[in-house]
Amino acid sequence: MQEHTHTASPGWAVRLLPRFPLFVLIAVLMLAVIARLQQVFNWQGVLLLAVVDGVSNFSAVFLGIFIEAAPYLLLGTLASGVVEVFFSANELSRLLPRNRFLAVGLGGLLGLFFPVCECGSIPLARRLMTKGIPVPVGIAFLLAAPVINPIVIASTFAAFGNTPIFWLRFAFTLLIAVGVGLLFMIEPDSTRIIRSVNVEGTHSFHFHLEHENQEQPLSLKEKLKKIMLIAGDEFFEMGRFLVIGALLAALMQTVVPQTWLLALGQGPVLSVIVLSMLAMLLSVCSTVDSFIALAFTGTFSTGAVLAFLVYGPMVDIKATLMYLRVFRRRTVVVLVILPWLLTLVSSVAINLWMR
Fold first, then answer.
1. pLDDT digits (tens, 9 = 90+) for 34-60
2. Contact 309, 346 (CB under 8 A)
3. In angstroms, rounded to a whole number, what is the distance separating the alpha carbons of residues 308 and 293?
4. Are 338 and 330 in contact (CB under 8 A)?
């Protein structure tokens, strides 16, 4: 029987090494051109200042988004580990009402017990769904939890007080999240909604699902170790999408001035579109977005401010990329567009009603 030997493919550094002189030549030519242009037009200082300004702004925005979101992603992955270790699928299913509509409604309120923003709710929702929670319930939790949780309730009240914006934010969020969750009840095959996240297909996980069926229970030390392994794996798995999303959001904020969008924000419909798009662009954590929205109250309509507060926590750039790790692409399209359309309709209705 003939043996087959496999040679390791060369790394990217080895492949690029023969082209290194070409890269050096191009860099030298670019420096020569810049030097010549500086002698002729004396614009190097202005160009350098603009580049440094842009890079500085990009770095500040990226670090702001990442540092703001990373702790909540870690909190969500820890909660995911706790659910995996301490709760069986049967125990979770017994917590839900038998009525499917009530179960989806309860999913929209689960954030009261898991105070995480959108970055933390995604890994936790995935864990709940893989443990047997129905997909519509998981989606309702995913969309509602970033807003309907104690931390965001307190921050929104601190910013707006006992005003219509405070109450309408939570009412619209719950109605939209539950409505989208109910929509997914028409698809009985969950594999057409979520990606395969079993252990064999997810090589970054260190744990194995057969542990759940072990007759010999784990000690508390082993359970804590397993929680940390799960949290660590999911943090780095989802964290790369958080980094890419933060980079894209920072790039968009650097390239597209916010003043351009704000200048367009006039009228009961256009203002809602502008602020909902701005919420997606800014990718601000839901725990602090109330104070940013407060600055828009003097310029934009009530409905537009509501759209910022409702749609932003459900869908932003970093969350959309993290959705792609959990759901199939068609599902992600629905999760991005349908909440936006429902937010648009409800916010415009508020604007027309309050005119």
1. 666 655 555 555 656 666 677 777 888
2. no
3. 7
4. no
3-state secondary structure of 327: strand
Tens digits of per-residue pLDDT, 105-155?
999 998 888 777 777 888 888 888 888 888 999 999 999 988 998 888 988
Phi, psi (deg, nearest 5) at residue 194: -110, 155
Prediction pTM value:
0.70
Which residues, at least 6 apart from 253, have a Cβ–Cβ distance to it below 8 Å? 57, 61, 281, 282
Phi first, then psi: give them for residue 99, nearest 5 degrees.
Answer: -70, 125
H or E element, residue 339 = helix 329-353
Q: Decide: helix, strand or coil at residue 344.
A: helix
Structure tokens at 315: 């869908």
| 123 burial via Cβ count (<10 Å: 0-12, 13-18, 19+) | buried
Of 65, 31, 3, 20, whose CA–CA distance to 243 is shortest? 65
Q: What angle do CA 247, 272, 313 make, to 5 degrees?
A: 45
Q: Quote the CA–CA distance of 83 and 131 in Å, as a whole number.
A: 8
Cα distances (Å, whole numbers) of residue 171 to 50, 319, 353: 45, 22, 17
